[in-house]
Amino acid sequence: MELLRxxxxxxxRLISAFHGAHVxxxxxxxxxxxxxxxxxxxxxxxPVPVISFDHQTHRIGGAxxxxxxxxxxxxxxxxxxxxxxxxxxxxxxxxxxxxxxxxACIATDSKRATTTKVRIVTERNQxxxxxxxxxxxxxxxxxxxxxxxxxxxxxxxxxAIVVSDYLKGCVTKRxxxxxxxxxxxxxxxxxxxxxxPHIDYYAGATVITPNHHEAETATHSRIRSTTEARMAxxxxxxxxRCESILMTRAAGVAVGKFGAATVTPAELVRxxxxxxxx
Length: 278
What we know:
The protein is α/β, with parallel strands linked by helices. It is built from 7 helices and 14 strands. The protein has a single domain (2-32, 64-113, 135-277), classed as 3-Layer(aba) Sandwich (UDP-N-acetylmuramoyl-L-alanine:D-glutamate ligase). The strands form 2 sheets. A 10-stranded mixed sheet has the order 1-14-13-12-11-10-9-2-5-6, with helices on both faces. Strands 4-3-7-8 form a 4-stranded mixed sheet. The longest helix has 15 residues, at 226-240. It starts with a strand and ends in a 13-residue tail after the last strand. Mean pLDDT is 88; it is low at 272-278.
């Protein structure tokens, strides 16, 4: 197996290629809410800390964060997703607008809550608890048809399609088929950040990006070495019936459609989290 290091010059060229690119992002958008406070004491009711509230912040997550990252790299992202009909949907939509994301179709479904992860954290950035508001039932009926129509409309203008699947209901078999058809019709790549229960939905994708735990689950194997990673990567590609995969672990493993495999070693970067000081 060939070992490659990603040179800074090549990384810069790859990033610059995002400039002006129009990427259609389809998937499970969500809202990340952070309730921040100071630990004052241990509760007399249970052995848990009592947090004295200081402030609350919101960030766009899931597929919305993917679209945000595309914009940060210089591209133009169009988002297709589903939310509930609630206050968190409004906050999520405002966050998308603030990030410069074109919300081509944010379908609202009165039967579901907007997927929201509420994290309670201390001033030192230590997470105390998390509360999830979500519905993982797959969309259907008019909501699904609206999503499919938006894919058919906006897929024609895209340079690439990204499907961000978190098993929260937006990515159904019919939605995935519409994304695959749009990519094929426009001769553009389709990339999938997968969830293993949907692996059969992704057949025909250009690239699927499992992490090594997902690859282990899909291939019923253990990955403890570069050789095992290579074998699992090939097995995953055959199982998913896609052109290529990019498996993330301590190194990224890419398997091309002709079976060649390359590994890019990870570089250890020491970082200090200053968020508690901000």
